[in-house]
């Protein structure tokens, strides 16, 4: 089938997207922009900084029946006191987290003290930026949330992007449908949230993206003792039930026919067809 | 400041990756090539033995240089993981560099692979590292690796500075080994309880301090078992290991 987008797009931007090392006349690095698109296809990740803890929630995409889902890690423990969640290409995430783990230990060897969150975020950003400037290599197709506590025992949440920029956030989300989650966070986030409120907010955010159910999300948090704690499925389930009860209006349940439509609509939202540009050439590598 | 004219030349050279395994590398200032120096390592003593479900490692706490006793409160037993420790004995710089490097590498593997290595794996990794680096340089550090695994139980590995690895019940390094090994040969038995182990450790220390010409005022002894690594208090007078319990002073608010 003839794709209108492909046939009609004879604009200048196409000529400059082949190599990372070429700017377009409008000042874009198209490969980096496309890397951002790869991040938008990945599983959603939410990070929330509360008064005394830091929370990461990750969407667990539906795995095939025969696959053992316990082997798929989304929240990585980088060091004793640091954790990282990535959205985008799984393989890139694995490579980058391994490199970050090595850097943590190298830092400890050199300075005989644990690395700060800021240092690690800057390091991850530095690695990612290198691949946007060197020829022959593509940028990392991941965005990552790096969490931990700094020396003053304040919780920190950093976001790094494929362009190699890093920034400090109070609450953040990356990955697919992250716009909805970010809108929710902007509405509901307050300074001085406590730990339990923070977890509820993270779950609420993920429920925007995920089909309801505890099996589809993974929540982990770090409190002042700087130990990463992964919440069990039962704990998450309880909180999901509490949140869904609060959401439900007191009106009577809708009829059977209407229910079917509702799930169909959701299906359409979650599984977007690949864009025509992606269909030509080789297939995109699998996303997280 | 002491100038080393006859021992080390401080040439910094690029170090290739050991085998094909990427691991934590030494930092620039730690790389050092030994000339044709005699091993100055024997003055430092360490010993260890295996009990029923624990390993006891002991190491002297002195750093000496030629005729000077520089420090008597040095902790030479490095925890590699929750239940694995490495007692290093040898040239002070090599020992510090080598043991710290091993600490960082074992921790790196733990975070990279998401699970802890067994004592056997750790001991063999360290041996391989030593053996590979022998081609370029020598780490003059004899080690004793003691660890506790859930299935295996307690295990003690003797590792030479030339990368000789053996799993043993009782072992010792340095000049003190001449005395300590005889004591252990006489009194060690299978399935020692912790109390018996402590008694044996006390006997070893007494023999070393009595017969060795070098004065070893303090010896740090640690016990590794399922709970982790604990420092044993072997005598009433704990002055020599007080530094290990030093609490950080709280900053007074102005």
Count of DSSP H/I helices of chain A: 9
Judged by helices, strands and strand pairing, the structural class of chain A is alpha+beta
Distance between the termini of chain A: 29 Å
The strand line-up of the biggest sheet of chain B is 12-3-4-13-14
Computed over alpha carbons, the radius of gyration of chain A is 20 Å
Shape of chain B: globular
Distance between the termini of chain B: 37 Å
- Give the class of chain B from helix and strand content and strand pairing: alpha+beta
pLDDT under 50 segments of chain A (min length 5)? 1-12, 278-284
Describe how the helices and strands are arranged:
The complex is a heterodimer of chains A (288) and B (254).
Chain A (H helix, E strand, L loop, with lengths): L3 H5 L21 H12 L3 E5 L3 E7 L15 E5 L2 E7 L1 H22 L5 H14 L11 E8 L5 E6 L5 E3 L2 E4 L3 H11 L6 H15 L7 E7 L4 E3 L2 H15 L8 H15 L5 H4 L9
Antiparallel strand pairs in A: 1-2, 1-8, 2-9, 3-4, 4-5, 5-6, 6-7, 9-10
Helix pairs in contact in A: 3-4, 5-6, 6-7
Chain B lengths: L7 E2 L23 E2 L11 E5 L3 E7 L2 E3 L2 E4 L5 E5 L2 E7 L1 H22 L5 H15 L7 E9 L3 E7 L5 E4 L1 E4 L3 H11 L6 H18 L7 E7 L2 E4 L23
Antiparallel strand pairs in B: 1-2, 3-4, 3-12, 4-13, 5-6, 7-8, 8-9, 9-10, 10-11, 13-14
Helix pairs in contact in B: 3-4
């Amino acid at each position: 089938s003839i794709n209108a987008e492909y046939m009609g797009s004879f604009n200048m931007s196409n000529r400059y997207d082949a190599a990372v090392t070429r700017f377009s006349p409008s000042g874009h690095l198209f490969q980096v922009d496309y890397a951002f698109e790869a991040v938008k296809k990945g599983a959603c990740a939410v990070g929330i900084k509360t008064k005394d803890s830091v929370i990461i929630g990750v969407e667990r995409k539906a795995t095939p029946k025969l696959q053992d889902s316990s082997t798929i890690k989304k929240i990585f423990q980088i060091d004793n006191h640091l954790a990282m969640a990535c959205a985008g290409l799984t393989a890139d995430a694995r490579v980058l987290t391994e490199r970050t783990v090595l850097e943590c230990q190298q830092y400890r060897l050199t300075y005989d003290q644990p690395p700060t969150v800021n240092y690690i975020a800057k390091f991850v950003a530095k690695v990612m930026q290198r691949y946007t400037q060197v020829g022959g290599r593509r940028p990392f197709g991941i965005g990552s949330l790096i969490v931990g506590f700094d020396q003053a025992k304040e919780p920190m949440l950093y976001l790094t992007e494929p362009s190699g920029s890093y920034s400090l956030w109070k609450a953040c989300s990356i990955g697919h449908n992250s716009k909805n989650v970010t809108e929710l966070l902007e509405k509901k986030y307050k300074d001085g949230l406590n730990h339990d409120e923070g977890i509820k907010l993270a779950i609420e955010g993920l429920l925007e993206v995920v089909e309801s159910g505890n099996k589809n999300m993974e929540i982990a948090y770090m409190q002042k003792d700087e130990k990463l704690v992964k919440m069990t499925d039962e704990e998450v389930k309880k909180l999901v039930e509490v949140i869904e009860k609060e959401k439900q209006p007191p009106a009577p349940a809708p009829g059977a026919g209407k229910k079917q439509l509702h799930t169909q609509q959701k299906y359409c939202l979650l599984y977007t067809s690949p864009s025509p540009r992606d269909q030509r050439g080789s297939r995109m590598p699998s996303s997280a | 400041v002491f100038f080393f004219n006859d021992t080390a030349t401080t040439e910094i050279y690029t170090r290739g990756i050991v085998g094909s395994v990427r691991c934590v590398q030494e930092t620039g200032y730690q790389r050092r090539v030994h000339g044709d120096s005699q091993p100055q390592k024997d003055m430092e003593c360490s010993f260890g033995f295996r009990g029923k479900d624990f390993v006891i490692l002991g190491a002297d706490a002195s750093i000496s240089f030629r005729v000077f006793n520089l420090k008597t409160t040095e902790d030479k037993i490095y925890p590699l993981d929750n239940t694995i420790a490495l007692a290093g004995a040898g040239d002070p710089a090599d020992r510090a560099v080598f043991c710290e490097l091993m600490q960082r590498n074992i921790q790196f593997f733990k975070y990279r692979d998401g699970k802890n290595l067994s004592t056997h794996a750790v001991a063999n990794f360290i041996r391989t590292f030593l053996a590979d680096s022998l081609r370029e340089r020598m780490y003059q550090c004899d080690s004793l690796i003691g660890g506790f695994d859930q299935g295996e139980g307690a295990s003690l590995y003797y590792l030479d500075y030339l990368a000789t690895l053996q799993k043993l019940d009782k072992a010792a390094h340095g000049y003190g080994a001449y005395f300590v090994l005889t004591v252990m040969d006489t009194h060690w038995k299978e399935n020692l309880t912790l109390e018996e182990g402590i008694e044996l450790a006390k006997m070893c220390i007494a023999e070393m301090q009595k017969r060795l010409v070098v004065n070893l005022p303090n010896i740090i002894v640690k016990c590794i078992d399922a709970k982790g690594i604990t420092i044993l208090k072997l005598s009433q007078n704990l002055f020599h290991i007080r530094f290990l319990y030093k609490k950080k002073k709280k900053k007074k608010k102005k």
